[in-house]
Design brief:
three-stranded antiparallel sheet, about 230 residues, Double Stranded RNA Binding Domain, mainly alpha, 12 helices
Amino acid sequence: MTRASPSRGEAVAVLTGRLGYVFKNEQLLEQALTHASGAKSKVAGSNERLEFLGDRVLGLVVAQLLYEQHEDVPEGDLARMLNALVRRQTCAKIGEKLGIPDALVLAGKGTKRTVVTDNIVGDACEALIAAVYLDGGLEAARAIIGVHWAGFLQQAPDMRKDAKSSLQEWAAARSLPVPLYETIDTTGPDHAPEFKVELKVEGRKPAHGVSTTRRTAEQVAATQFLRRERIWK
């Protein structure tokens, strides 16, 4: 038997339960979930203005969390991690988990019904953050973001620039020569070679990387160096 889709009221209840926040002003919640296509007034009734505010609240909170949780990461990498964590695709993934698509107010019936895209879900997620912020203050918004972005925050170090670029920036900041990569061994058959690369950084022990391409072996060596020297955890 095919399960009937939940009513919008049921969907909103599921959403607020997953969100973990009870609104004092439910009108803010309703506006956060109202797409421009379903609003009586695009300016006052839709979630577009809330999305604008939520984007800034999310950026501030995530920036502070990255600053607190990743003490060894330089500014440039923090910026790249921040961009990955607040981009619309990430917000859309979180919005999906919260159940935003079923709770949205959209226009139309039949052929003119608005298609729910990642952009719509991501924008509504940011609008929801703004609604929490306006209803409960910055600490309430911070608590919500801390919970629902936790998994992405743990993965954040993998979102920074590649190892070779990070190492080159680190060396340049210390007025060191450009790191040197040298292929010191090639093994295996022609159709499946394996390259061993040695990385040299002035004043430090060499690092080594092995892979099926020179480029990847260089990245492996750079990663090994960054972790060994505690530049990356």
